[in-house]
């Protein structure tokens, strides 16, 4: 098992990509902390991992809240004594409310940035000191093609994901000397609850599958292999990298 004896935090681990990564980490031997805002999905995911023989701890966490993030990290350290991996994944997408910049409501902008960008910074801020003490660690950012290319009517979400890549690069160069690796995964269109509204339209679902050269939607499990690679020592020389798992979407 490639992550045996490691301790990993995965934010937004109750469903979708986060749950898929958490389950794969556990299958590879890691003790996984599921930092999730929704108790029902967080507890369900933890029970599923435990039922399969893995180690999992659910901690209710709103990643936009500094006090909750700090408490989550302290509970993790109290339980396990260290943190080897942080996977920043928790995000929100208000698909029906997203629009062009001049039409966007302030509260949609602020909540999106609070979770999708501030949340990545806060969790990193409170995890990094423990990694500095042990002189090792891996931080994985789940980003998005919207942070690289222009997508219509996704102003707040695209801005947040562009910021995620900027934060990743800044942290990568700052912490590489202390042997803390920071990298990003860019998924394509993944069949998850976050995308459920958009993908509920059969025509839209078909369109998203067709625009990727792989001619299908992605699944949360598709990201597991890359996430394990980045969490393990196999990626020891990977710093500031962007790893696409998008069926070729960003290659065309």
Distance between the termini: 35 Å
Estimate what percentage of residues fall within beta strands.
Answer: 15-25%
Tally of strands: 7
CATH fold name: Rossmann fold
Helix-strand pattern, N to C?
A: EHEHEHEHEHEHHHE
CATH superfamily: NAD(P)-binding Rossmann-like Domain
Number of domains: 1
SS summary, helix count: 8
The CATH architecture comes to 3-Layer(aba) Sandwich
Notes on the protein architecture:
By secondary structure, this protein is an alpha/beta fold. The protein contains eight helices and seven strands. It has one domain: Rossmann fold (3-Layer(aba) Sandwich). Helix content is 44%, strand content 15%. Strands 3-2-1-4-5-6-7 form a seven-stranded parallel β-sheet, sandwiched between helices. Helix 5 links the parallel strand 5 (137-142) and strand 6. Helix 4 (106-134) runs parallel beside helix 5 (155-175). The N and C termini lie far apart (35 Å). The mean pLDDT is 93.
């Amino acid at each position: 098992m490639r992550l045996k004896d490691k301790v990993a935090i995965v934010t937004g681990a109750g469903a979708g990509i986060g749950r898929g990564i958490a389950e794969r980490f556990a299958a590879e031997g890691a003790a996984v902390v599921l930092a999730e805002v929704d108790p029902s999905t967080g507890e369900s995911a933890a029970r599923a991992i435990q039922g399969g023989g893995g180690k999992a701890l659910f901690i209710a966490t709103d990643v936009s809240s500094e006090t909750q993030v700090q408490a989550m990290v302290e509970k993790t350290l109290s339980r396990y004594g260290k943190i080897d991996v942080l996977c920043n994944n928790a995000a929100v997408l208000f698909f029906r409310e997203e629009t062009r910049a001049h039409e966007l409501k302030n509260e949609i902008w602020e909540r999106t940035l609070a979770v999708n960008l501030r949340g990545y910074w806060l969790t990193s801020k409170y995890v990094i000191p423990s990694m500095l003490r042990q002189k090792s660690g891996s931080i994985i950012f789940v980003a998005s093609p919207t942070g690289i290319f222009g997508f219509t009517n996704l102003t707040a979400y695209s801005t947040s994901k562009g910021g995620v890549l900027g934060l990743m690069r800044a942290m990568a160069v700052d912490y590489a000397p202390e042997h803390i690796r920071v990298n990003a995964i860019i998924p394509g269109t993944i069949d998850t609850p976050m995308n459920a509204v958009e993908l509920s339209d059969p025509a839209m679902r078909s369109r998203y599958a067709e625009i990727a050269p792989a001619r299908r939607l992605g699944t949360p499990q598709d990201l597991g292999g890359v996430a394990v690679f980045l969490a393990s020592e196999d990626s020891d020389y990977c710093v500031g990298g962007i790893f696409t798992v998008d069926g070729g979407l960003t290659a065309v």
